[in-house]
Amino acid sequence: MHDIERAIDEIVGKHKNNSNRLQPLADYLVRLFAALGLPDTRGGSTAELRIPGLARRKDWDVAYDFAGKPRLLVSLKSIWANASGTVPNRIDDLMGEVANAQQMSPELVTGYVMLFNVDEDGLRKEDGRSWSQFLEEAIRTIAIRKAPLWNQGLIEGFWFIRFDTARPVGDRVVDLQSTESKGVSFVSALLAELRRREPAVPFVPPATPAPGT
């Protein structure tokens, strides 16, 4: 079974109120960052992460520290049901979350991963698009943070994962190969931006092939 399928199955199997429900995906990302050249990334089952922000300290799911400061952060979120009631607030929450950290450390590289249960998707009355499509496109509009456009509230990259709880174990990820490929591209893009901003970071040669299959 593919690693991302295994991670999604573990997440689906956890109770909906489990505060560590997305931990298997954080573990997957930590392994992927290591395979692509950044072995000291923390998160998931390896560490609890409390990152300083201007307004308050905030939990993040994956982080990389260098020279005593966080340099790269990834937030994991999920939508399981009530898409029409949840999606409209998600972008505001995201922009507030990243701006809080960026105000303390403008050089931060930030990424965002969204899990969306398509079994609970629906169509918007305004334009007939699905809620998952609307949300993915909205996130894409703010995933443009690169020098010199370092506006607070923007992000450097995102990974949108559609899954279906109505499908059987081992077959829940929608368009598996494309989803895995986009995950590798997401991590690679964050690492490329980190290299530009922090050339002293001790990267290692990436593994071949990257994990996922």
What does the secondary structure layout of this molecule look like, with pairings?
Elements: H1 3-13, H2 23-35, E1 42-43, E2 50-51, E3 58-59, E4 62-66, E5 69-79, H3 83-102, E6 109-117, H4 131-142, E7 157-163, H5 176-197
Parallel strand pairs: 5-6, 6-7
Antiparallel strand pairs: 1-4, 2-3, 4-5
Describe the structure.
By secondary structure, the protein is of the alpha/beta class. It contains five helices and seven strands, in the order ααβββββαβαβα. A five-stranded mixed beta sheet has the order 1-4-5-6-7, with helices on both faces. The chain has a two-stranded antiparallel ribbon with strand order 2-3. Helix 3 links the parallel strand 5 (69-79) and strand 6. Helix 1 (3-13) packs antiparallel against helix 2 and helix 3 packs parallel to helix 4. The mean pLDDT is 89.
